[in-house]
Amino acid sequence: MELLARVHDHNENRYYRGFRLLTLDWSDGSTCVPVSFSLLSSAKEKNRLMPMAEIDKRTNGFKRRAESLRKAPEALKDLVMQARHSGITADYLLFDSWFAFPATILGLQHLLWPGDDGVFVAGRRNPAGKDGPGVRKEVRKIDRKVQQ
């Protein structure tokens, strides 16, 4: 299978053969609607078990394959941009702590709330804020920390 990769399962601390699915959902608190997704292989060539087929670079198939080779934080930014361009709005962006790093958060903040201080909520832990579990951190405070 083309672009099949070794995918690390952090819960069991082992690798499986497969792909990662990154989804962007919208919720009002009681319903959850899938908005966009990205099927990811591995950005690291050594973790890919099968290479990408040689196809015309002008095709949508090539674009999808190239998209699957990006890192998850890059793909996340594209999913958010797609949703924003489609007219989907949100008060908060809830994501796993895996994405809660200053560069990712600041990049998303400028996509969602240009010139505003949007609040991001990270699951479990917040490595960007280092303030403990379940802490909400204002982007301007993270921005100050990054620029120090």
Characterise the protein shown here.
- The protein has 148 residues and is an alpha+beta fold.
- It is 29% helix and 25% strand.
- It is built from four helices and seven strands, in the order E-E-E-E-H-H-E-H-E-E-H.
- A three-stranded mixed beta sheet has the order 5-6-7. A two-stranded antiparallel ribbon has the order 1-2.
- Strand 5, helix 3 and strand 6 form a beta-alpha-beta unit.
- The longest helix is centred in the middle third of the chain and has 14 residues.
- The radius of gyration is 17 Å and the shape is globular.
- About 8% of the residues have low confidence.
Record field, number of beta strands: 7
Low-confidence segments, given as residue ranges, are 124-135
What about the largest sheet? 3 strands, mixed
Structural class based on helices, strands and sheet pairing: alpha+beta
Estimate the global geometry from the Cα principal axes: globular
Tally the helices: what do you get? 4
Lateral strand order in the biggest sheet: 5-6-7
> Could you tell me the mean pLDDT?
76
Beta-strand content bin: 25-35%
Please trace the helix and strand order, writing H or E for each element: EEEEHHEHEEH
Helix content: 25-40%
Over all CA atoms, what is the radius of gyration? 17 Å
| Terminus-to-terminus distance | 46 Å
